[in-house]
Amino acid sequence: MKRALPAFWLIVLLTVPLWLQDQYILHILITTGIFIIAAMSLNLLLGYTGQLSLGHVAFFGIGAYASALTTLGFDIELFGVRVVHQPWPAIVGLFAGMVVAGISGYVIGRLSFKVRGAYFVIVTISFAEVTRLVALNWVELTQGPLALTNIPPYTLGFPGLGEYTLWNKTAYYYLVAAVGLVAYLVIGRLVGSRIGRAMIALKENETLASSVGIDVTRYLVLAAVVSAAMAGGAGSLYAHYLKIIDPDIFLFIYTVMMVIMVITGGKGTLAGPIVGGIIFGFLPVILRPFAAPAVQWILYGGLMIAIVFVLPQGIVPALERWLANWTGSARQPAGAMAGGNPKSRDGQ
Hints:
Layout: H1 4-19, H2 23-46, H3 57-72, E1 74-78, E2 81-85, H4 90-112, H5 118-137, H6 139-142, E3 148-149, E4 155-158, E5 162-165, H7 169-191, H8 194-204, H9 206-211, H10 216-242, E6 244-245, H11 252-265, H12 272-287, H13 293-310, H14 315-339, H15 342-347
Antiparallel strand pairs: 1-2, 3-6, 4-5
Helix pairs in contact: 2-7, 2-10, 2-11, 2-12, 3-4, 3-5, 3-10, 4-10, 7-10, 8-10, 11-12
């Protein structure tokens, strides 16, 4: 059962464009998938190290802008020196966005992990606001509120088959699904390793983890770098899919969306951000036909509060407990029948 279920969902994931004819729903799937990747990256920090970053959207936006500028090119003057960059292929922008976001995660991690609790949250929020202001006011580089436009789509090269440009939604769906699957496997492999166990130990009891020789700053910074790089990759996907980005990509609401996906789905679980992302990614689509925008937000918030109160650990942990109880109760009668009644055996 445990092996068949992942295979089933993988088949469903790969065949969606074959039976889904509604292009709008496919668009929602793509954008939801991009934010699920960003939520998975946040879960690495929040769920496995216990560090709440409310500025995670900064890495998402940095990846988007770095990827777009790598692809579009730029000509600016920096400290009296003219800097010219010629356009590179869009697929290079994906890796450039991840690298720049990862470096940003390293710098912010080294600085912000010297503090904890509310101070860490304030540092991350401030960093996100600073990046938004830079994107808004550095008009020579980012075009400011006028936005970066005409961002080209990715072009993939296949040996012997030439190049393929991802113009349509089906191609982008498979690209987002592939990147999401890679991110899922990387996080799963990481948290299942010695590094992941050290991160979880820091979340459970940082003082005790330090006393047994775990380097707190080292593992927290490593988590920040991996998390930021993944968020930057999601930002690159977002920029090249919509083909336009502006400073609004750094809005705080996007971080809130990621946090909601992680908390409601189940922080510290691999499937949590995916389940939470699907629910809250498609909820506006479900509510739109019969609810006004204001009512949609009320219902959106009401559902989130209900999930947090009824399932405080999230949907995935609750489903896992229910499945364990169900399989346990299903096996118990069989075990009792196999073991027989001790009294009847004694009587015989």
